[in-house]
Amino acid sequence: MKKYLFCFVGLMLAAPVVSNAANIQHGRQLFESICAPCHGSNAQGNVGPNIVDQSVKKIEWALNNVGMMKPVKSSNPQLNNVQNIKDISAFLHTLKK
Ligand code: HEC
């Protein structure tokens, strides 16, 4: 029993630090359904600019300040969740410039 408890605590500690494959996969899904129409399927740019490698901070800034993106935030409540923004950023970091 004790052994399992330690494993569990270990996972809890490791989880927020590392963005694992599941986070990246989740970020990809969010990106493809919400961002790709404007930023391109590989974030290479379309109506909006290339956003490969963008940080969590920059994404949050854009959602609050870019005119075309404000309605995107209000119609997709999952973008109010910081973890979701982190997942999108983790996915964007896997793409090549
Ligand atoms: C309706 C179209 C549209 C959608 C959907 C959209 N964006 Fe944007 N985004 C834009 C436009 C247009 C700009 C550039 C505005 C400018 O340069 O004035 C932009 C700018 C940005 C920037 C700033 C880039 C820079 O270099 O300054 C980031 C980061 C960004 N978008 C991320 C996202 C993410 C992440 C999503 C999905 C959650 C998303 N956008 C969805 C249109 C969109």
From TrEMBL:
Signal peptide: 1-21
All residue ranges annotated as the Cytochrome c domain in the record: 22-96
Gene Ontology terms, MF aspect: electron transfer activity; heme binding; metal ion binding
Keywords: Heme, Iron, Metal-binding, Signal
Stated name of the protein: Cytochrome c domain-containing protein
Pfam family, one: Cytochrome_CBB3
Domain of life: Bacteria
